[in-house]
Amino acid sequence: DAKTTQPTSMDCAEGRAANLPCNHSTISGNEYVYWYRQIHSQGPQYIIHGLKNNETNEMASLIITEDRKSSTLILPHATLRDTAVYYCIVRVGVVSSGSARQLTFGSGTQLTVLP
Amino acid sequence: KAGVTQTPRYLIKTRGQQVTLSCSPISGHRSVSWYQQTPGQGLQFLFEYFSETQRNKGNFPGRFSGRQFSNSRSEMNVSTLELGDSALYLCASSTVSAGVRADTQYFGPGTRLTVL
User: Fold this and answer.
1) What is the spatial distance between Cα B81 and Cα B116, in angstroms, rounded to a whole number?
2) B52: Cβ–Cβ under 8 A, 6 or more apart, which residues?
3) Cα–Cα distance measured from residue A67 to residue B31, given in angstroms and rounded to the nearest whole number
4) How far apart are CA A30 and CA A79, in angstroms?
5) Gap between the Cα atoms of B9 and B61, Å rounded
6) CB B96 within 8 Å of CB B103
7) Is the separation of the CB atoms in B17 and B81 below 8 Å?
């Protein structure tokens, strides 16, 4: 799976949009971009994933550049509850039986939402 | 749908003992993966089970083992516990079916294991 690079930490004011960048310059054509977050000592929470088109759900939006070498997770109106470590993961989508299916987590970005 | 559940949530053991952790996946999910999270190593993959068969294994010693039952519930076992096994153990389930273009793993709350 392609390696990702994320900033170590970011701050965001409550109520403002939080934009979390991720670089994945070695991404392959069949690899998806997944975002998870982890609030202290809890299990990671799935946020969103995408292949090449921008995606939006009730939690966030995912913007993937045309060359797919980077992406941005957008939390439109950050709240204090969004303070967490955010992980950007690149992984193949449909995998055949026996092939690697695990998620490889990096260090992530510690997002702190400030009141 | 109920989420992934893990029991127990907290566990304290002493060195040399063994421990069994349990994971119940989301209904309909047939794949269960286990991860270990420590402050020093971060989140690391342990193994994955699908249809009662281990399909993939991470770089952990043989003291770490697991199994999956016909109802997709999974257990992991750690024998001869060491201090370094203190960690948050996470279980994740996903659906594996034809037509699913990109499966998503959903995590449980984890079991916090402390080895004294």
Assistant:
1) 9
2) B67, B68, B69, B70
3) 32
4) 34
5) 23
6) yes
7) yes
Chain A to chain B, count of Cβ pairs less than 8 Å apart? 66
Instruction: Output DSSP code: residue B25.
Output: P
For residue B59, what are the contacts with CB-CB under 8 A and spacing of at least 6? Answer: B44
Nearest to B105 among A41, A97, A103 (CB): A103
Contacts of A36 in chain B (CB under 8 A): 107
The dihedral of CA B80, B86, B87, B89: what is its sign? positive
A59-91 tens-digit pLDDT: 999 999 999 999 999 999 999 999 999 999 998
Interval A97-107: pLDDT, tens: 555 668 889 99
| 3-state SS assignment for residue A83 | coil
Q: Is B113 helix (H, G, I), strand (E, B) or coil?
A: strand
Distance between CA atoms of residues B8 and A30, nearest Å: 38
- Tokens read off for A5: 């690079």
